[in-house]
UniProtKB/TrEMBL annotation:
CDD domains: XendoU. Keywords: Endonuclease, Hydrolase, Lyase, Manganese, Metal-binding, Nuclease, RNA-binding. Residues 1-70, 96-359 form the EndoU domain. Its cofactor is Mn(2+). Residues 70-99, 112-132 are annotated as: Disordered. Residues 74-84 have a biased composition (Gly residues). Monomer. Belongs to the ENDOU family. Pfam families: XendoU. It comes from the Eukaryota. This is EndoU domain-containing protein.
Length: 359
């Protein structure tokens, strides 16, 4: 409120100089040349600059303001409804005929490691309001754990059990060397040997994004997922892999955590308390709230009816070819879905900041 005038849901930069803001708004206005959004990352967090201009012989800025993408804490993004905001259309994965849709169709068809409807049961419970627990039961009511004997699950769960990462983003991660590096390399090689990743890699080559053999590409891919950077006062306490496949603690909240296997294991161990859903699309994906120990995930989500190797392959393809907020668009089982993903500079090159599904 300023005198009698109220600003509704407007944001400002904090911790920046007026010179920075002037330059940021100017660059966005000149590059968008009209109304638009400019996306970038700061300390691992996706930031958007919203710009509105008018050109009457000269370009003038009418409105400019920043926003933080709460997709990681706003998950799959509020369409509402107890059966999800997306509408299933007949005929399965129709999509829009795009190359990305063709890739997703192919990867989903060959993902023989994804759980069947009989191997995985969910209880979405009640719609959540505020921060209170609205659902007495866990999200996962049943998982046939024999699927965890398959290599993609075995390697991932073995990595989880070895406590190779520090959850707090303000604590630096151990050096990427020796036994730790070997375990993570084994997981990545298991994922990249799947037909899902082979399809994704062929797509990247066909799009001209990658012009290397797979063996030559693997070091770059390792840096993308496992390269460390700071989300807290300079401490190298985060990586794309930890953020997506394990989840992190940032202040009093959960940051990231976009893998159903990790969530299920923590929930089974009594470390996660499911509060309820915001929306969901069948048993494919959803947006929901929970606490991990004492840390709150206000709104988060992940793909549920896919294997971790599928997610890894999809997120890799999207961040290389269609990064940004809702940059990837496709259908799975008739639901309109997408992926938001961002990259950022890190000491070893280019690292993944985040990647997660949207609907």
């Amino acid at each position: 409120m300023w005198n009698s005038v109220e600003a509704l849901e407007e944001n400002i930069f904090l911790g920046t100089s007026p010179e920075f803001e002037l330059c940021a708004y100017t660059i966005c206005a000149l590059t968008k040349n009209g109304d638009g959004i400019c996306d970038y990352t700061h300390k691992g967090d996706p930031i958007s600059i919203h710009i509105k201009t008018v050109n009457n012989g000269s370009l003038r800025i009418l409105k400019a303001f920043p926003s933080i993408d709460h997709g990681d804490d706003g998950g799959n993004g509020g369409n509402g409804g107890n059966s999800g905001g997306s509408t299933a259309s007949p005929g399965g994965n129709g999509g829009d005929g795009s190359k990305m849709q063709q890739l997703v169709d192919k990867m989903y068809a060959v993902d023989t490691d994804r759980p069947s409807s009989n191997e995985q049961k969910l209880n979405w419970g009640n719609k959540v309001e505020g921060d209170e627990d609205a659902s007495p039961n866990p999200l996962f009511s049943y998982v046939n754990e024999t699927i965890f004997q398959r290599p993609v699950y075995q390697k991932l769960i073995d990595m989880y059990n070895r406590d190779l990462f520090t959850a707090d983003v303000c604590e630096a991660e151990p050096e990427m060397a020796g036994f730790r590096k070997q375990i993570l390399t084994d997981v990545m090689k298991t994922f990249t040997a799947t037909p899902m990743f082979q399809a994704a890699f062929q797509y990247l080559q066909d799009e001209g994004v990658v012009q290397k053999s797979l063996d030559d590409f693997l070091p770059e891919l390792f840096t993308l997922w496992f390269g460390t950077y700071s989300r807290c006062h300079g401490a190298k306490g985060s990586s794309g892999w930890e953020h997506v496949f394990l989840g992190e603690w940032k202040g009093s909240t959960v940051d990231g955590q976009h893998d159903w296997v990790r969530y299920y294991l923590l929930e089974k161990a009594g470390k996660i308390n499911y509060h309820g859903y915001d929306n969901y699309d069948g048993n494919l994906t959803g947006t929901f709230q929970y606490t991990w120990e004492s840390y709150l995930k206000k709104v988060g989500g992940f793909l549920i009816h896919t294997s971790p190797a599928f997610d890894f392959s999809l997120f890799t393809a999207c961040v290389y070819t269609h990064p940004g907020k809702n940059g990837c668009h496709f259908q799975i089982e008739g639901y309109n879905l997408g992926v938001t993903s961002y990259k950022q500079s890190c000491d070893d090159g280019t690292c993944l900041s985040t990647s997660y599904p949207t609907n």
